[in-house]
Design a protein that fits this description.
Mean pLDDT: 93
Helix content: 25-40%
Radius of gyration: 20 Å
Bound molecules: zinc ion
Order of helices and strands: EEEEEEHHHEEHHHHH
Number of strands: 8
Number of domains: 2
Strand order of the largest sheet: 5-3-2-1-4-6
Oligomer: single chain
CATH class of the largest domain: Mainly Alpha
Low-confidence stretches: none
Strand content: 15-25%
Length: 249
């Protein structure tokens, strides 16, 4: 039976000569692997619909005990085409998609699929049309901490509860006061502005426009958030290492 599903292409990997494997996030079926036949041929009609970071409608036969399907037809819905035209945008999109891919097992259908689909399509849309890349990435990372159940403590000192907060301790899991600071062994030397750290971790995607007013958001902000996510969820991003080299140059 032909199923039609809207899916966001997280990545495209090498497969057979003219074919590719697509990792696609859908709301209905979670994360799926599609075989896209002939997509690497110059004459392929569906190659654009199978590119990373696009949203397309895929037609395939769904079988409950399978996690890999052959695409019968793919039609492009949202191209996010400016991402492919800008190296920085492309690298950020790659971080977003890599982290979503790594945080989801294949084919699980539950609430997290819906919320990650919503989060990722929102962030890619903003990344595509706007210039505040660092805000998009910081907000995405803060939302990932929430989805994975490891949000930082941003209302008080994580160790004693004092509201006179002084620094961010990634290791301890949020704000620390000046007294507890002495007990912290590893304080990272890149420090995000405390107010921005609190705001981004309190916000959700509806607050995007509001957050613009608290910038400029920086790659140090992104680094603080990605480090927090890595320490507390174990999720690491190879794409972030590329991005870091790119922006440091
Ligand atoms: Zn304290």
């Amino acid at each position: 039976m032909n199923e039609m599903v809207l899916g966001l292409v997280l990545k495209q990997s090498e497969y057979r000569e003219n074919d590719a494997l697509l990792t696609v996030l859908t709301e209905e079926y979670g994360k799926l692997t599609f075989v896209a036949r002939g997509v690497k041929k110059m004459t392929s009609k569906s190659s654009i619909a199978c590119m990373p970071y696009v949203i397309s409608e895929f037609c395939f036969d769904y079988l409950e005990d399978k996690s890999m399907f052959t695409i019968k037809n793919a039609s492009l819905k949202v191209s996010n085409r400016h991402i492919q035209e800008d190296l920085e945008k492309m690298n950020i999109a790659s971080v977003l998609c890599e982290l979503v891919d790594k945080s989801l097992p294949s084919g699980v259908d539950d609430e997290i699929n819906h919320s990650l689909y919503e989060l990722l399509s929102f962030c890619l849309e903003k990344l595509n049309i706007e210039k505040q890349h660092q805000l998009v990435l910081s907000l995405f990372l803060a939302q990932m901490c929430i989805h994975l159940g490891v949000p930082p403590v941003v209302d008080e000192c994580v160790l004693c509860g004092s509201t006179k907060v002084h620094r961010i301790s990634i290791e301890e899991g949020g704000f620390v006061c000046s007294e507890c600071l002495n007990e912290c062994e590893n304080i990272n030397n890149f420090q995000m502005d405390l107010k921005r750290f609190r705001l981004i971790n309190k916000a959700n995607i509806e607050h995007y426009e509001l957050l613009k007013g608290y910038g400029p958001w920086t790659f140090t902000d992104c680094q603080t958030m990605i480090e927090f996510l890595r320490v507390h969820s174990g999720l690491d991003s190879a794409s972030w290492q590329f991005l870091k080299k790119l922006v440091e140059e």
